[in-house]
Each structure stands twice: as C-alpha cells, then as structure tokens.
Design goal:
four-stranded antiparallel sheet; about 25% strand; eight-stranded mixed sheet; alpha/beta; elongated
C-alpha cells in the first residue's frame, strides 16, 4: 500500500526534485529550497515553521495518541560546476546537487504526502526535519539546540542518504558505528625567507612542512592501533609565490577521520607534537588549529532492527543489506543519534550494469524512480515505529 501511495505522488515529487536540482543553494542560503518546502507542506495542510536560518520543521499529527518520530533530510548543494547530461541541469554556474540532497528533500516531502494521507491511522506524530548546511558547518546541532526534539518530544529519528556505492533496490544498514567523525586541522609552519641560492641563511618552511605531512602518516601506520580506523589526509599545501624565493611560511589543512573517542583525542595531540618537534629542529615555529566537528554516527540496535523490517516490507527480503564497510565520510545526523535512538539508511542509486555514481563529482546523477523507494522507506519506518 505504501509503495502505491508513493507511486501516486511520484510525478509531483519528481518535479520538486528537478526544481531543487536546477536551483542549487549552499549551506544557510537555501532560501528558494526552504520556501518550496514550506509551500509544499502548506499545500497539504501540514503545519510547519522555519527553524534555524533556512531550516524547516513540519509536524503531522496522527489521529491517535502515541509517540513522536522524526524524519530528516539535508538540503544544501555543493560548489561544483555540473557536467551531468540531464534535462534539469543546474542553472547556477559553480553550484550543483552533487551529493543527492535534492533527492533527500524530495523523498521526505513524498513521505510527508503519504503520511498526511493516512494520518488518521497513525498512533502519534511525525516531525519532518529539513536541515540546512550539512556539507559545511552542520545544521543538525543548531536545529537541536533550537528545540526541534521538543514540543512534542521526539522518541526516535530516521534518515536516509542516497548511496552511489550501492545498487538500486538495495539499502545498507547496520547496528552501531556507521560513519566517522570528520574533524579538521590547519597548520601554519613559520620559517625565514631567503634567496633560493642561499638556503643556509633562511629557515625553509617547505622542507619542514613536507616532513610534517609525512610524519602525520606515521601516526596512522606506527602509533594508532591498526584495528581502530584512522585517516589523516593533508588536502591543502600552500607556500611561496616565486620559483627562486624561500617563503616565510607554509599553510597546511586537512581532515582527521576516526570512530573511537580515544583515537579521536590521541590524533591531534600526536599531530601537534610532530609539528612542534620538526619546527624546533630547524629553528622554525608554528600555529596549530584543530576543530572537532561531527561525532561518529552510531545507529541504535533496536531502531536498526525496526528499519530493516520496514525496508523489507517495501522492497522484499533481498533489499536490506548489512553495511558492507564502515564509511570514513562524516554526517551530522550523528548529533541526532546522540540524543535519541536513531538509524541512518544508505539507499543504493547505481544501476546494475553501470558505473557507481560518484558523490561530489560534476557528473553525479541518478534515476528519478529512486524517489519512489526513498519516500516509501521513510513513510514505512515512521508508520512501523508509531504503530508497533
């Protein structure tokens, strides 16, 4: 029945997805997206309000008393110039929905349409969380701080992410750790400028920075327990303006990914120690900045079991796949996992005989019919949580 209702609303949901895709907006600037969401909820008589900048929260009140479940979708785009060969290409140069958030929003609106149609049968309430700024600073925590989990109090939360590494018809789920904590570091290595022909009168920050980058990798290979995942990636290395001038400083920036809290604390301590010792050897100095960002995403066992059953109801026994591997990617749905029992689902979008859809790539694309499944999964898991 749920999939039939998803099919009923599919054309409207598809058009919403296309509108969002053609008008991508980055974090905290999702003004058109936010208005489209509100207009759609208004059309169906679903109570809604703006919460934290461009965020939107909707509320569907069931016909019978009961619990409250939250369904979440993120809605920001990326600074990527689209190259995908689709009719609904981005109309804004340099911006693109290259991670599937247009599908998350459209899929949740589809679920809202389904749930609103059968609301008299629901035991409790459904909160709809349309969250801004997942890709940068993260909008989940500010929305929590603004009270999204209260009035009525939320008892559980569920979310989905379109997943290029999975095939259409598959949903990957797990109990426990799923996605890593994606922390950020920035380092300034300070030396002393000089003519390239006289390096002895200067202090070369490029040499120091190169040794720092290599030193960081020994934390992964020789300090960290190899059974505890850890990634340290230096993704920015800026220094110098001329081929024959030793610069005054070099700037490094990158990311540290981990699951275990002890590993997460250990990594920046070791990283700064490496920076300090290398710069000391050569007579340089440094500034070190480390930002702990989203926590690791850890699914609740009971919510995982419930979500798995819901997926099977929609798409059959073979559709629910145990998570193939932990992801070192980050996701601020993790903040919801810290507050209430939650489960995050990865919905496959790649075609059976095709190449995987690569997230954050200018040619990232997927079939609109995936929306039938995402709307169905979100609606079904909400129904099952409230009515069981």
């Amino acid at each position: 029945m749920i999939k039939d209702l998803a099919q009923k609303y599919f054309e409207e949901v598809k058009e919403i997805r296309h509108q969002i895709h053609m008008n991508p907006e980055v974090g905290l600037k999702e003004f058109k997206t936010s208005q489209l969401i509100k207009d759609t909820l208004d059309k169906y008589g679903i109570e809604n309000e703006t919460l934290y900048e461009t965020g939107v929260v909707g509320l569907i009140k069931g016909g019978k008393p009961g619990k409250t479940v939250l369904l979440r979708a993120d809605m920001d785009a990326l600074e990527v110039d689209e190259m995908a060969d689709v009719e609904y290409r981005s109309t804004i140069k340099g911006l693109m929905h290259a991670c599937g958030h247009d599908g998350h929003v459209a899929g949740l609106l589809g679920a809202a349409m389904i749930l609103n149609e059968i609301k008299d049968e629901l035991h409790g309430n459904v909160k709809l969380m349309f969250q801004p700024d997942e890709e940068k600073q993260g909008g989940a925590k500010p929305m929590i701080d603004a009270g999204i989990l209260e009035n009525p109090k939320v008892d559980a939360a569920f979310g989905i992410h379109l997943w290029g590494l999975g095939k259409r018809g598959e949903v990957e789920l797990c109990s426990g750790p799923m996605m890593a904590a994606p922390d950020e570091f920035r380092v300034t290595i300070k030396g002393k400028g000089a003519h390239a022909a006289q390096p002895n009168v200067g202090i070369d920050p490029i040499v120091m920075a190169s040794q720092v980058v290599n030193g960081f990798q020994t934390i992964v290979s020789r300090v960290n327990n190899p059974l505890q995942p850890l990634v340290i990636s230096t993704c920015m290395f800026h220094g110098g303006d001329a081929f024959n001038v030793i610069p005054e400083y070099v700037e490094l920036a990158g990311t540290v990914r981990s699951f275990d809290p002890e590993v997460r604390e250990m990594a920046p301590q070791m990283m700064e120690a490496i920076v300090k010792n290398i710069t000391n050897i050569y007579g340089g100095s440094y500034d070190y900045y480390h930002q702990f960002k989203y926590p690791a995403l850890i699914n609740d066992k009971a919510m995982y079991e419930l979500a798995k059953k819901s997926v099977i109801k929609v798409s059959g026994e073979d559709s629910a796949i145990e998570l193939r591997s932990l992801s070192m990617g980050g996701e601020d749905f993790a903040y919801l996992c810290q507050e209430v029992p939650s489960c995050f689902m990865l919905v496959g979008i790649s075609e059976e005989d095709g190449e995987p859809a690569i997230h954050h790539h200018p040619k990232f694309a997927w079939n609109d019919e995936v929306l039938i499944d995402t709307s169905s999964y979100l609606a079904q898991v909400a129904i099952d949580f409230l009515n069981e």
